[in-house]
Amino acid sequence: MENLMEKEIAAIRHFNRYYTNLLGILDQHFLKSPYSLSEIRVLYEINKYKKCTIKKLSEILTMDEGYLSRIIKKFQKEGILEKARSETDGRSYILSITRDGQKTVDEINRRSDEQIYELIKNLSKAEKTKLTKNMESIITILSKLPININ
After folding, report:
1. In degrees, to the nearest 5, what angle opens at C-alpha 105 toward C-alphas 40 and 131?
2. What are phi and psi of 149, to 5 degrees?
3. pLDDT at 118
4. How do residues 96-141 score in pLDDT, each as one tens digit?
5. Which of 61, 74, 90, 100 could serve as a FRET partner for 45 with CA atoms 20 to 30 Å apart?
6. What is the pLDDT of residue 75?
């Protein structure tokens, strides 16, 4: 590691800790739900990508397939997720959100929107614009990197 980058590394790590705490991301029951952030992300991605498989989820989330399998079994047991054998590949299963699962996803999305609304509601229009533009810049800059650091 170059000494010249110590300041930048420290600043990025500081921001990551700040933002993680700000949103309560490390809370075991994220958004006052019975789920962790990892579990919520799994639900989000299954809901987003129709005909989603465990392999696809693992690639999208860079998450261990064994860990994903445990989350999926939990969701099946709770009745918020269904698993059906793929018609094109008998070794794969297609994951889908049930009607109850969709209610769960909708509620989590509503709470997430409320959380962000509460966070930025007192900012001026200019501050909101600056904040979102800076976030877009972070994504643009980091998405150009040739490696995935997850």
Report:
1. 70
2. -90, 5
3. 95
4. 999 999 999 999 999 999 999 999 999 999 999 999 999 999 999 9
5. 90
6. 97
Rounded Cα gap, residues 82 and 72, in angstroms = 9
Separation of alpha carbons 98 and 145, rounded Å: 37
Tokens at residue 56, please?
A: 């696809």
7: phi then psi, degrees, rounded to nearest 5: -65, -45
- Region class of 24: left (phi > 0), else alpha (psi between -120 and 50), else beta: left
Dihedral angle over CA of 140, 143, 28, 15, nearest 10: -60
DSSP track, 38-87: HHHHHHHHHHHSTTB-HHHHHHHHT--HHHHHHHHHHHHHHTSEEEEE-S
* CA 1 and chain centroid, separation: 29
Residue 104's pLDDT is 96
Are 100 and 80 in contact by the 8 Å Cβ rule? The answer is yes
Give the pLDDT confidence of 1-44 residue by residue, as tens digits.
556 688 888 999 999 999 988 888 887 788 889 999 999 999 99
CB-based contact 96:84 (threshold 8 Å): yes
CA distance 75 to 150: 24
* pLDDT for the residue 22: 87
